[in-house]
Design goal:
3 domains; 6-stranded antiparallel beta sheet; 26 strands; Jelly Rolls; 379 residues; mainly beta; 8-stranded antiparallel beta sheet; 4% helix
């Protein structure tokens, strides 16, 4: 019997081995770039789902358009527009299967770049998703790989960071290369484990991923070490970056194809169907919407109030959601006009919800909700 004994197999011009052999136990590690499933820790990284709407000009921090990606702005003279947009055909992301992106269009910042000004996109990774990913968090030889596509109408570099929220908070800072204006660029970074990191196996915030089109000097540090973990501080959001984008009226900033995976190599993006991505997003937020119609449920009278029977969420949510009602009325089963009501109490759990109206009419009624009803369990 013949056998070949090697340490690794590498392409002639390659810098990384395609196959690395463990000489002790004979196991191997393969550098595979085809589309393996269930490895991307980012939900909606292709920006397909936007349950709340496709465009917003609010200055209120939070989730407004693309699911799982939040937005914040401060010190501005004019608010920015943040939106889900189409990826143009013929571009590199389009050819890689991306059809949507998250885009920020800057306002007119007539006061210039203030030290406390900022605009950022955040993504929070649920802690247990990291803890159970297979990444050895405290081992510096164990890596995650973070990759995404980025485009700007202004030629400059941009900063981004990953903040570990558990234990004594740590941060790892990065910056992109100088981008060519209006040209998509793929950015890839390696994230090593570190003995100072703590990631809890729970449903709280594990990582905060922060993208900064601009961030003022109050939040930056000159000479801040990049590509390495350090203790978190407010001045460690980023290294100082140029203010060109911030001071350019209607400058644009776009991202798509955001992927975080275990290993030292950026594999091909894990494309999921819209249906799959939508169900994953509903763990954190969903709403009931309809055009020109209400959401109705039979309610029963019990102990001085009308009670809506338990209603199941479409998926188990991360936590008991905050439920926001537009308005509600009741209608007798034999018809007649609607009577406006107020929700007296709401029962909310990770798997179901229930609402009650205080009333003394001992009859069956139908509860008429004006849509949308919103269920929010975001990180």
């Amino acid at each position: 019997m013949s056998e070949i004994k090697v340490n690794s197999i590498k392409g002639v011009a390659a810098s990384v081995a395609a196959l690395s052999i463990n000489n002790t136990d004979g196991t191997c590690t393969a550098n595979i770039t085809n589309n393996l499933s269930n490895r991307n820790l980012i939900i909606n990284g292709a920006m397909q789902v936007a349950q709340r709407g496709t465009s917003s000009t609010t200055a209120t921090a939070g989730y407004h358009t693309v699911d799982r990606f939040s937005y914040a702005i401060g010190g501005h003279d004019e608010v920015a527009t943040h939106a889900q947009v189409n990826v143009a055909s013929g571009t590199s992301p389009y050819q890689s299967g991306f059809r949507k992106a998250y885009k920020i269009t800057n306002g007119n910042q007539t006061s210039g770049a203030g030290s406390s000004d900022y605009i950022q996109i955040d993504y929070y990774v649920e802690a247990q998703d990291i803890a159970n990913s297979g990444w050895d968090v405290t081992n510096s030889s164990s890596n995650l790989t973070f990759s995404f596509w980025i485009k700007s109408s202004v030629s400059q570099f941009f900063t981004f960071a990953i903040r570990c929220k558990d234990g004594t908070e740590q941060v790892i800072n990065f910056k992109t290369p100088v981008l060519s204006a209006d040209t998509w660029t793929k950015v890839t970074k390696t994230i090593p484990g570190n003995s100072n990191l703590t990631v809890h196996n729970n449903n709280g915030r594990g990582f905060q991923i922060m993208f900064f089109p601009f961030i003022g000097t109050d939040y930056t540090t000159v000479g801040l070490a990049e590509d390495t973990w350090s203790a978190w501080a407010s001045a460690k959001h980023a290294v100082p970056n140029t203010s060109t984008w911030w001071t350019t009226n209607d400058a644009t900033f776009e991202i798509t194809g955001v992927q975080l995976e275990v290993g030292s190599v950026a594999t091909d993006f894990e494309h999921r169907s819209f249906a799959q991505e939508l169900q994953l997003c509903k763990r954190y937020y969903y709403d009931l919407t309809s055009s020109n119609s209400g959401y109705t449920k039979l309610i029963i009278h019990q102990n001085g109030y009308f009670q809506l029977p338990l209603t199941q969420h479409p998926v188990e949510m991360r936590a008991a959601p905050t439920i926001t009602f537009s308005s509600v009325a009741r209608r007798a089963l034999n018809g007649g006009s609607d009577t406006s009501e107020s929700i007296s109490s709401t029962g909310s759990a990770t798997t179901n919800w229930q609402a009650q109206l205080t009333n003394t009419s001992n009859t069956f009624h139908t509860m008429i909700f004006t849509l949308p009803i919103k269920y929010d369990a975001e990180l």
